Every structure is written in structure tokens, then in C-alpha cells.
Amino acid sequence: MKLYPILIFLILILGCKKPFSQTPETALALPIEFTEQTESIVFIAGFDEGDNTYYTNAKNYFEAQDIQVVDHLFSIEEIISFLNKTAGKTYDKIHIVSHSNPWLGMSLKTTRKGERITVETLSQSKNNMPVLKYGINNSTEIVFHSCGLGENKALLQALKQVFTTGESPKIIASSYFNVFGGKYAGHYLAKPYYGYYPTAESPGPAALSKDFKASYPETKIDWFTALKTRKETGLGGIYSYKFNIPVEWEFTFNDKSEIPRFSDRDAIMDWVSESSEMATILFNLNIPIEKYRWKSEIRGNKLLIKGKTTVLCVLQPILQKDDATEYRNTAINDTSLYQML
Questions:
Q1: How far is the C-alpha of 245 from the C-alpha of 71, rounded, in Å?
Q2: What residue segments make up the domains of the chain, in order of their start?
Q3: What is the reported pTM?
Q4: CA-to-CA distance for 56 and 134, rounded, in angstroms?
Q5: Structure confidence by residue, pLDDT tens digits, 57-74
Q6: Rounded CA gap, 116 and 18, in Å?
Q7: Which domain of life does the protein's organism represent (predicted)?
Q8: CA 270 to CA 280: how far, in whole Å?
Q9: Where are the beta strands (DSSP E) in the chain?
């Protein structure tokens, strides 16, 4: 048997969704014009799909502050090339808006036609990256508005290495979710809580709320109400949304008679668990194997194993410690909200 693993993820996340199409071929060659000295710049490193308006909301938020916004570059390669064309200009703040999630890293790509950014893909693409020569100094703050990125210290360190040349800028990101275009604030942070169930097999909000209570026993949240609330209903109100994570593997056999036939889902899970490659991937995702809906399919001499889990994300907006009627200021120097390297 020859193994050709194909792992596919389709993430639909509020503030953390993967861009679909490639960057225009002309992106690196676009001319850059400045009408006045600019101290800050924002890279909107993606575009919206469906009813998710994260990037549009972020663009509106920063444009309202009269900050230069660049919204056609979707990779670190392109951002560095852009900065290298600004010889003589140094930014005090560089904002990069990109979806991110705990499972797949950032939607921002390494190169124009490269992969999503993870520690591994950054390392693999290092030789294909242009060297940053201009635009930053030791006082520059590069702020990533990417959900949960502050939790990934290894990735922050890898990003710092990419943006460090003779000068070493500060790399800043929050461990919380970034929400742009909220009903009561243009930008605020929220703490996420996660639950899972096999896609299309929801046990219902009552059972799911019990799972959340068991997973977060010290957290005082009305999980039942939160799971049934899909948008902000009041300032600081807790709400939730859901999205799917599919995984798929393809196995090629020399002889069709060697292909295993599975009697039920448990048999598929046993087979997946016995494969070190598949088990390692699922372990890294940190989602229990029984939380996926498993199916198998035979196509000629190929066996396809498919799993899909639905992720429930409950968001709790971060409010002022001494005033529950105000969102916490998203000041990047607040070490309780942001990590800085």
C-alpha cells in the first residue's frame, strides 16, 4: 500500500477565516505613492467571503483613524517587498490584519503563492523570502491583529526573526479574539471558549452546555443562553458561533482486494488511531477523535477517510475591570491583553 495523505481544512471563523484566491500577479509591482509622511500603516492581509466581514470592518476601523491602509497584499513576501520600496521612510507602527486560529496558524501566507504561516512553513520558505531593508527600526511596533496569535510564542518568535535585520522591531499580538465592527465598539477583544461535536449530529444546546460546564468548571457563564445567542444582544453580551473543520486522507493500494471495509464508525476510528501519521495530526489539532463524524469511501484502488467536526466558539468580550459598561481599551501596551517580543 502506498500512502498519499491529503489533509484538507475548511475554516469558517468569525475573525479567523482563510483567504481563498491567490494574490494578483501584479501585486509586487504596484507603484507606491505617498502624499505626506506616514508614521503608521495597516496591511489588510485578506478579503472577506460569504457573510464574514472581518476584513472590511477592520479596514473601515483603521481608515476612520486616518491611517494609511494597504489591502492588496496577502503574504509576508509582499509586505516586505512593499516596505523595501519605501526607502527613507520608517514606521512607528505596522498593523497586519489576518485571520488566525488555534489549529492552522495564520491565514497570512509566507509568499505570494505559498502556504499559511506556521513555524514550519516560515522555516521552509526562509530562502524564498526577500530581506527586509527599510521601513523599520528598533522602536517599530509590528502589531498582528490575529485571533489568539499571542498564545503561540514559537510563531511570534519566528515572525520576529523574519522582520529582524540590522534593526529589531517589537512583535505584538493578543491571546484573545479580535473583533472588528462590533455593535458597540469598532474594535474589541474577546475570550474564546471551545466545544465540539460530530458535524450534523448536534446533541442540542442542553447537552452541549453541560459539556462546556465540564470543560470550564471555574467559568461563570450561562452556557445554554450563550450557545443559543448568535450575535451581540447588549454591550458586553456573550454570544457564540460555529464552524466546521474537515479532515481527509487518501490511501492508494496496489491491489483493490487489500482495501479494508469498515462496518461502522467505530471501526474507522480504530483504523485511524492505529495510523501514526493520522493520529499525530489529530493529536496536534487537540480535538477528540470521537468528536468527528467519520466516513469512508472507495474509489477504484483508493480509500478515502473523511472526518468532520463542528466547533462551537463562545466569545466573552473583555470589559473594563472597574466598569462593566465599557469595553477594555485595546491599547497594545496593556500586557494583560497583548504579548510583546
A1: 27
A2: 14-181+326-340
A3: 0.82
A4: 28
A5: 999 999 999 999 999 999
A6: 9
A7: Bacteria
A8: 14
A9: 2-4, 40-44, 68-70, 93-97, 100-101, 105-109, 116-117, 141-145, 170-174, 177-180, 187-198, 239-252, 293-299, 302-317, 319-320, 323-327, 338-340
Cα(75)–Cα(289) distance, integer angstroms = 33
pLDDT band at 102 (very low <50, low <70, confident <90, very high): confident
Taking only the tens place, the pLDDT of each residue in 176-197 is 999 999 888 999 999 999 999 9
Tens of pLDDT, residue by residue over 137-167, are 999 999 999 999 998 999 999 999 999 988 8
Backbone angle region of 88, left / alpha / beta, with phi > 0 → left and psi within -120 to 50 → alpha: left
C-alpha cell at 197: 461535536
φ, ψ dihedrals at 84, nearest 5°: -70, -20
> Does 234 score more than 60 pLDDT?
yes
Residue 35 binned pLDDT confidence (cut-offs 50, 70, 90): very low
The CA distance from 135 to 83, in Å, is: 5
- 3-class SS at 209? helix
In contact, 272 and 282? CB cutoff 8 Å: yes
Whole-number Å distance between alpha carbons of 48 and 51: 8
Q: What is the average pLDDT score of the chain?
A: 87
Dihedrals φ, ψ of 156, to 5°? -60, -40
